[in-house]
Amino acid sequence: MNLIIDIGNTVAKIAVFEGKELKEVFYDSKSSLDSLPKICRQYKPDKGILATVIELSETVKEQLGQLDFEILILNSKTPIPITNLYATPETLGSDRLAAIVAANEIFPERDILVIDAGTCITYELIDAKGQYHGGNISPGMAMRFKALNLCTDKLPLINEKGAIPEFGNSTDTAIRAGVIKGMEFEINGYISQLKNKYPGLLVFLTGGNEFSFDTNLKSIIFADRFLVLKGLNRILSYNEHI
């Protein structure tokens, strides 16, 4: 059994794989990993990998130190099964890298755009030769709502729940439509531009924010909430055989 730990800006995800098969996913505190001992007792993993975009707390370090096996901590020097062309690999988020690795495994020898809509929205491009060209980082949904509230005197803090007209007829609907439709147009813009350069482009959507948007490219869009976890599992398996 493989133990996969992905610690993000908001929450930690712990997954158990048997080979390539995802058995179960748990959501836990990013600062404590309280459920880790119970998961290990239940599934008895014998190898694992950790990816994090935050500094590990002392509590998490203690939890990891109690594992019966040494866990692989993903960093810029960890061997990966793709070519990384990122100019500063030491600054590349492990979640961004893992998502690309997973998409490449699912559809090898294809040009792929991975869009991860979480705390931030990230756009990652890997070509048919398995070369990761890099990506862009944009504010996520909650961040956009908070920025409008914090950076102005009078705009309220709202969320995505509620009416989303074409044009808002109140301040709340104007903010909500502006944020949601702004994300839709942004995503569609990336897809359309890259589709011109890579006619066979495939698009993956992943991440914690679930939202729908209109696009005439739906036939090439794949949704996979656990793309990052699958990528980490592939990196772990890859390192077993080198």
List keywords for this structure.
alpha/beta, 6 helices, globular, 11 strands, single chain, six-stranded mixed sheet, five-stranded mixed sheet, 242 residues
How is this structure best described in words?
With 242 residues, the protein is an alpha/beta fold. It is 33% helix and 25% strand. The chain is built from six helices and eleven strands. It has helices at residues 36-43, 58-65, 94-106, 141-150, 171-197, 227-240, and strands at residues 2-7, 12-18, 21-28, 47-52, 72-73, 83-84, 112-117, 120-126, 131-139, 202-206, 221-223. The protein has a six-stranded mixed β-sheet, sandwiched between helices. The longest helix is centred in the last third of the chain and has 27 residues, at 171-197. It starts with a strand and ends with a helix. The model has no long low-confidence stretch (mean pLDDT 92).
- The portion of residues forming beta strands comes to 25-35%
Number of helices: 6
Shape field: globular
Distance between the termini: 19 Å
> What proportion of the residues is helical, as a percent range?
25-40%
Q: In order across it, which strands form the biggest sheet?
A: 6-9-8-7-10-11
Q: What is the compact description of this entry?
A:
The protein contains 6 helices and 11 strands. The protein is an alpha/beta fold and 242 residues long.
